[in-house]
Amino acid sequence: MSEFELENTYLTGNQSPPPNESYRHKEWCKRGYQPSLAPICPDSEMGMIIGQMGWIGSHSHSHGYLWGSAGNAGYLLQKRISENYLLPISHSPRYQLPPAIVVKNLAGRHVLLSKSGCRLDMIAIEHPSLNVTVLEVEDDGCHYRMRLGTPSIQQLNQMRIEAPKPTSEFFHYMLIFDRLGDNGFNALVHLQPKFLNLISRSEHGSPSRFYNFLRGYEPETPIIYDQSGGIGLVMEKAPGIPDLSFESLRLFTGEDLVEDKRSNHRHVIYWIGHGTFSRGNDILDAYRHTEYFESAARMAWEANQKSINAQAYTDDIVSCIMQEFQKNQTTSSSQ
Question: Which end of the chain is more exposed for a tag (fewer CB within 10 A), N or C?
């Protein structure tokens, strides 16, 4: 292997951290590496899911489903993680969910999430704690602790740095896991595929037209998705706000459909002009639904390229999105 190639130090089983006092070791610690914690075993539920996150990160970046640090993924763990893999509760930074999001069904459960500002494809390259975190919800359903992928409370005070955070859209995950977890909703993946985005910005970007425009380009589409109402379309919502969480829940459960069409929960919804939010039993299962619809969208776009008119956001919409997003990112904490 040449010096310019990157080795996946997690999936290959090489868990050796940088030497103590080295520059890389200090940077790792700022990003949440904890040398005292046991290395995550690849042959475990969390190890398998981290491996899947790394694979979809690499695959989605190489296929144009996202770029930069866009996109995120999360998983509701079936079993509690052993304490030797996690920061002690008393050392773990404590935060509060937005007031509208209460998740008492998740009390005591562990949720694995990608972190804010982290690239999904780096999960396949770097130590897990640099790009993912584990949240534990308290009994009130309003507060949570970051127990992996973060400096401890004492370290944050000593280093005087801003703490790493879960993805800015994490409370969408928390609400869906709270209401639908363990029923085919153990994994959620959010991506920003190009062709679905373009079509959602065109004359076909309405709930009555979006799925019908896409369903005829691949035989799998109607076979797999007709019985669950196709792909749900969330109209204009700023990312990272509770309204988007509740509208996503409504469309996943098919509340927008007539009663005799609600035989199954939807597998995937689309946030117009933004990206997919798909669910499954694990990360790969959730990911494939975005793959199906993006391939259909690409064929639809190329077949109708001369007749589709995709429009960018206006300045007014961009301003509104920024205001709503910032308003919901002031997560309060108590340590």
Answer: N
